[in-house]
Structure formats: C-alpha cells, structure tokens
Design brief:
Elements: E1 3-5, H1 10-17, E2 22-24, H2 25-28, E3 36-41, H3 47-59, E4 65-71, H4 82-88, E5 89-91, H5 92-95, E6 100-105, H6 121-134, E7 135-141, H7 143-153, E8 157-172, E9 186-197, H8 199-203, E10 208-214, E11 218-224, E12 229-232, H9 242-252, H10 278-294
Parallel strand pairs: 1-2, 1-4, 3-4, 3-6, 4-5, 6-7, 7-12
Antiparallel strand pairs: 8-9, 8-10, 10-11, 11-12
Length: about 300
C-alpha cells in the first residue's frame, strides 16, 4: 500500500523516482480504507530532506499512511522557503482539536541549549502533552527523544566530551519486543549529536524499557510497555550522504570536526560511504506502524480510549 502525499511535495517526486508507491490525495479519497493519520512535528532545519527521509520509511509497508506536517508557530525557519511551509505545513493551533494514529517528533540542532531556553520549548511541551490524549503512539527522534524523555520522565541530557558522530553497532536487548522484531542481534544506526542522556536515570525509570544499546553510542531505543511513547536517540532515517554533507559542511566552515566513525570505507572520505543501516531503519518504522499504530489504534479515532 502507498503513502498519501500532496503531488507537489518534493518528497513525492523523489520517492516516485525511487519506484516507491506514492498515491495522490484525490485517488486516496476514492478508496474505502481509512489511512493511518501520522503527524510529523518537523523541527529539523533541513525540513525538505527530512520530509523525504521519513516519507520513504513510512511508505514501505502494506499500510496506507496520510502525513500531516507541523511546524512550530513560535519559531521562524531560516533554512526552508516560506512558500514551502505555507503550502505543506500547518501549526499546532490548527490540529489541537484533532486526533492522530501516530506522531513523529524529529531532532533539532539545539541540543547544547537548556531545554527551557529553546524558543519553541513551551509550544513543544504543549504538543507533547497533547500527544498523551490525542495520539496513539509517538516516536521521538534524536533531540526529540531527549526532549520527550525530559518532559515525560524528567530524564536529563548530558554534554559529551566529543561529538557522537558516525555509524555505530547496536545490540538488541529485548528481542521479544515487537519494535525490534526481525532485527539482527547486532545492527547499525547513525548518530550525530553533542549530548546524550543520563543512562542511570533511564535504567531507574520504571516506565521505560531499554530495547537496544550501543557500547559506543549508549542507549539507542526505549519504549513504554504500551508503546504509546517511543524514543530513538540516533538518526536511522538519515540518507546515505547525510553525515557526509554534515562533515563536509563543517570542514568548509573550518569547524573542529572528526571524520564520522565507521561511515566511510576504510575511514577515508575519498572511498565512499558504507550504507549499512538502511534495512533496519525500514524495519524499525514498519514495526512501529504495524505493531504500535495499526494493530492497536481503534478504527474510530474519536472514540479511542486515549486516557
């Protein structure tokens, strides 16, 4: 089954060129199927790239998915054309009376700031509070995971002595959990961040289950028992060249940056990228959609027992 996207969204053209089934909204209206309603709170500066990355992962299942993109009204994006935001995005004020099967809260380049100093923090807190009673399952990614852990459970983020930058091996801790169903015992995922989470606080939190962890990158995947709140500390959605773009950008700016670990063949930027995390990224998102959204959310969202 396809993902439903506006035909003019750049992601639609990109996915069609990759031979991924994208359905126009007009055609979807004539199908007697209720699509899964997923709202994406896109906090990334590279919004168009993030749209494509997430749409690609959500499109690769038998489920029909309808995406709603949300931007924060309290922050003005400097890297995405206003015309794009006006055409394809809405704000929280326009969806606060709606209900959704799933929500994705992305990362953001504000990790070194205290949460309370981020200009849209209060609005994001309202969104996360909204998710508890109006969204069946919320997937928090990278800084979004740090923000969610702090807001819901008071878990602190901690500064790192060196940027966590590269592609790292992770081990599945709870292989019986549906989110990691079909995973290899060891799998790879990208990270790009200057902060981590207080792992001791996670381990002491009775509401959280650690599902996957890396010796180098720390805890990668956490969930509540119900799957209503899920946290991913890395960036499995990243494209093959995303870390390469970040690395070369910082080199060009003269910023202190190490070569991303385990990313280039022989750790040599001239030898190309070892794209080794794609299959598990697809599996993570399809497992989330299937087991924690489609299999559990009621057909009538208005009558769903969210509380």
């Amino acid at each position: 089954m396809p993902i439903v996207l506006p035909p003019a969204l750049p992601a639609a053209e990109a996915l069609e060129q990759e031979n991924i089934f994208v359905m126009a909204e007009k055609r979807a209206l004539h199908q007697n199927i209720r699509p899964l309603r997923i709202v994406v709170v896109n906090l990334m500066p590279t919004k168009i790239a993030t749209e494509t990355q997430l749409a690609r992962l959500l499109a690769n299942t038998p489920l029909q998915v309808e995406l709603t993109f949300v931007r924060t009204g309290s922050h003005q994006s400097k890297n995405t054309p206003e015309s794009h935001l006006q055409e394809f995005y809405t704000t929280f004020d326009h969806i606060r009376q709606q209900r959704f099967d799933g929500m994705i809260i992305t990362g953001a380049p504000v990790e070194q700031m205290p949460f309370e100093e981020v200009d849209y923090w209060q609005e994001l807190c309202e969104i996360m509070d909204f998710s508890k009673n109006n969204v069946w399952s919320t997937l928090h990614v990278c800084w979004g995971a740090q923000a969610g852990l702090y807001y819901h459970f008071g878990i602190e983020k901690v500064p790192l002595s060196q940027k966590m930058f590269g592609v790292f091996p992770h081990k599945v801790i709870r292989p019986s959990n549906p989110l990691v169903r079909g995973f290899d015992e060891t799998f790879f995922a990208p990270h790009s961040r200057h902060t981590g989470i207080c792992e001791q606080q996670v381990e002491n939190c009775p509401a959280l289950r650690i599902l996957a962890k890396s010796q180098q990158a720390g805890i990668f995947l956490m969930s509540t028992d119900s799957g209503r709140q899920i946290f991913v500390t890395g960036h499995p959605e990243y494209d093959k060249l995303t870390l390469d773009t970040e690395y070369r950008r910082d080199v060009d700016k003269g910023l202190p940056i190490e070569i991303p670990q385990n990313y280039y063949y022989n750790n040599d930027p001239t030898q190309g990228v070892n794209f080794c995390w794609r299959s598990h990224a697809h599996l993570l998102y399809s497992n989330w959609l299937n087991y924690y959204v489609y299999q559990t959310t009621p057909y009538d969202l208005e009558a769903a027992p969210f509380n």
